[in-house]
Specification:
Layout (H helix, E strand, L loop, with lengths): L1 E2 L3 H9 L4 E4 L3 H4 L11 H12 L6 E5 L9 H13 L5 E5 L5 H12 L4 E6 L18 H17 L3 E5 L3 H10 L4 E4 L7 E2 L3 H4 L18 H17 L14 H9 L6
Parallel strand pairs: 1-2, 2-3, 3-4, 4-5, 5-6, 6-7, 7-8
Bound molecules: 3-methyl-2-oxobutanoic acid (KIV).
The site of 3-methyl-2-oxobutanoic acid has 10 residues, from loops.
Length: 267
């Protein structure tokens, strides 16, 4: 699974054979410049998800429910989840979990009861990072690991089709993956989850972050490649080598002459 927020990248991910494309609320930090994912709105998510939809023909498309879109009332929750399918063409939605919250379990149940497939998300949940003690590895104690497993089993029993495990120790993610029948998708959760997810801009080095967390592998320095091309463009414009004659349109010679012969015109 990888993230996309726009059409060009969605097309590439789909062509590369990525199984699941997630329009993550990481959109807020990666593409919109917010300091956290908390300010991201439903309208922003839908706007970007619609663009991604137009580029995806193979992968399963999952929309990430933003903060407060599933935390207010059952009615709002189901309506918002439904918008991801009806308006943006998603196949499923993802919801970040809140361990021990019955309201959150009720929200997942309500969405599933409406017939909308749900991907759970446990471990580090950035929307409520304050609630889980900040942006740090979760389930590091035996008690926390037990709570995580309980929540994962509950999500499975409710009918979620998979669970994202973010920033949990590899042993815990492996044990949870073995206990569940539904697939786990890890991010910072070791090699033994059933699948892996990254924010695409992280693996391409397009976030401008010089200190990415250790679970991110930079597969290419697209920032350097883009920077080189942009500098070359600027240089070519300045030295007059762009655009060349081949990169320009020309008028038929006789039309040009006719135009010049008109004294009120271009001559
Ligand atoms: O918002 C997001 O991109 C995510 C992934 C990192 C799983 O939730």
């Amino acid at each position: 699974m990888l993230t996309a927020y726009d059409l060009p990248l969605a097309r590439l991910l789909d062509e590369a054979g990525v199984d699941i494309i997630l329009v993550g609320d990481s959109l807020g930090m990666v593409a919109l410049g917010y300091p956290t994912t908390v300010p991201v709105t439903m309208e922003e998510m839908l706007h970007h998800t619609k663009a991604v939809r137009r580029g995806v023909s193979q992968a399963l498309l999952v929309g990430d429910m933003p903060f407060m879109s599933f935390n207010v009332s059952r009615e709002e929750t189901v309506k918002n989840a439904g918008r991801f399918l009806k308006e943006a063409g998603c196949d499923a939605v993802k919801l970040e979990g809140r361990l021990g919250s019955r309201d959150w379990v009720a929200a997942v149940r309500a969405i599933l009861e409406a017939g909308i497939p749900v991907l759970g998300h446990l471990g580090l949940t950035p929307q409520t990072a304050g609630w889980v003690g900040g942006f740090k590895v979760q389930a590091k104690t035996a008690e926390e690991a037990e709570k995580l497993l309980e929540a994962a089993l509950e999500l499975e029993a409710l009918g979620c089709f998979g669970i994202v495990l973010e920033c949990v120790p590899a042993q815990v993610a492996q044990a949870v993956s073995q206990k569940l029948r539904i697939p786990t998708i890890g991010i910072g959760a070791g090699a033994h989850c059933d699948g892996q997810v990254l924010v695409t801009q992280d693996l391409l080095s397009l976030t401008g972050s010089f200190h990415p967390p250790k679970f991110i592998r930079t597969f290419t320095r697209l920032d350097q490649i883009i920077l080189k091309a942009l500098r070359e463009f600027k240089e070519a414009v300045q030295d007059g080598s762009f655009p060349s004659a081949e990169e320009s349109y020309s008028m038929p010679e006789d039309e040009w002459k006719r135009l010049l012969s008109n004294p009120r015109s271009y001559s």
